[in-house]
Amino acid sequence: MDDLPPDSSYRTYFEQSPVGVFVANERGEFLDVNDRGCELVGYSREQLLSMNVADLVGSRGVAAFERLGETGRVEAEVALTRADGRVVEVSLDAVALDEGDYIASVTDISQRKDDERRLVQYEHAVEQASDLIAAADREYTLLFANRRYRQFHDLSDGDVGTVTLPELLGSATFEAIESKLEMVLDGAPLRDEIGRTAADGTDRTLDVQYYPLERDDGAVFGIVATMRDVTEQERRRRQLTQFELAIESSNDWMAAVDTDLNLLFANQGFRSFHGLDASDVRGTPLSDVLDDSAFDFVRSRVATLRAGESLTFEHQTAVEGERIPVRSVVYPLEDDDGEILGFVAALQDISELKDRERQLHVLDRVLRHNVRTTMNVVAGYADQIRTVSADAEVGEYARTIIDHSEQLNEMVAKEREITKILSDPPRTTRIDLTREVAAITSEFERAHPEAVISTEGPETNVEVRAGALGRALRELVRNAVVHADRERPVVEIRTSVTPETVDVRVVDENRAIPEMEQEVLLKQAEIEPLVHGSGLGLWLVHLIVDRADGTLSFEANEPRGNVVGIHVPNAEDA
């Protein structure tokens, strides 16, 4: 190349070429290079003329140079290492010259390769996106659709580029959005929420964002849309709206606090009761709302709430200077991952309940005192008559009066127990049922030696969580013994255990318990003048079992008698 005259057209091209031009001999030694080539690799011409092709190219470039000697021409993309250590990607077009040398045109394609890589990454991201992405031209022919969109509409790859939106969506659906699409084609981005039926037949809610597709000169040639399936979010939003309406309209005062015991929200009842404006709720310390004693109690139980347990307690709070009783239930507020975000409280004004409890206690004391006093007087006079009268028939009448007086006094005693359970339910504790049954059996065998009492059940200890279950069992055994119509009452206590429940059945051979009594206790009949329960003992049993989250059952014992069952949750399952 140096032998060419300065004014040679070849020499002019060599010097002024917009791409790098390199000349090398068959050994790979550089013989000439133009200015663009020097700029490309960052070496001066003098430096390059002392270098070899292998100094600039990697193994791929060396292999291309070797092929050049065999074929006379090579086109390839190789990487050159610049003087500053940076690697530049180039397109190489090399040919053999007559004198055994080689000339190569080298073009920097780094930007194009970067663009291609970004395009591949972009296409991959779009294709793998969870959103539905598609584009259409001005005639609404589908230009592009990613995998998620194709799956949603059950499209094949071949459908893209041929199917139109009216064909894909149906005329009715397309007409509903056509005016919006025209707005986008006029250059206005648009957001919309639409309902669509997917190919699998499910109804979905899509959040759609439309954008105009523009050429470099700004001309709009189509529409691109990204559609996010927000069906679940919409369902949750509706649920949240329903929850908010339910909470706002609740008769309870409801509020939530964060883990620092600052209010997050409070319903209308809570706000009105505590004199809070809706705008003042969030961030208000709970200590500014509750009485000191109630706040101290909640704060002392934060560790319990953080452990996932609920908290129920009664306290008093002041409203317009008047203190009223309140029952509060507090439970953890958790997110979907189980992380505790705070605590929710539901408060009830129990003023009326407390008034009724006081009335119940007053009636209990009056009834107990008056009835027992009166019946003791009646029984005393009856006993006096029986003592002084020589008439056997009068004596029998007096004995009947005494018996009924004792029954009525016994009924009053049971009424007192029922009142106590209603107003002050027994504390739920673990009970060793096996030991309790053994104690009851021994107790009644001593008190009623004429009775035959047997037990059947597991040999191992059986535990239940119930407050006064032993009292209920004693009442059932007592009824079976005392109300027996045979000289030797026969009673069996059967205990069985399932993974969910512990079942205790008291079996006797007495007259059947009236169906009316059973229906009232099992809440299958209302208490009416002609339908009522007369046995307070069974009412006492029913209340105890109900307070233990259990159930009562009645069956016939063949050939004669009753099977009264108590079924309570297994303590191991609780």
UniProtKB/TrEMBL annotation:
Keyword Transmembrane: no
Residues of the Histidine kinase domain: 366-572
SUPFAM superfamilies in alphabetical order: ATPase domain of HSP90 chaperone/DNA topoisomerase II/histidine kinase (SSF55874), PYP-like sensor domain (PAS domain) (SSF55785)
Annotated InterPro entries: Biofilm_reg_signaling, HATPase_C_sf, HATPase_dom, His_kinase_dom, PAC, PAS, PAS-assoc_C, PAS-like_dom_sf
Statement: the UniProt record of this protein carries the keyword Endoplasmic reticulum: no
Occurrences of domain PAC (ranges): 190-242, 309-362
Domain PAS: 6-57
Coiled coil: 112-139
UniProt entry keywords in alphabetical sequence: Coiled coil
NCBIfam families: sensory_box
PANTHER family linked to this entry: BIOFILM ARCHITECTURE MAINTENANCE PROTEIN MBAA (PTHR44757:SF2), DIGUANYLATE CYCLASE DGCP (PTHR44757)
Official protein name in the record: PAS domain S-box-containing protein
Species in which this protein is naturally found: Halogeometricum rufum
Taxonomic classification: Archaea, Methanobacteriati, Methanobacteriota, Stenosarchaea group, Halobacteria
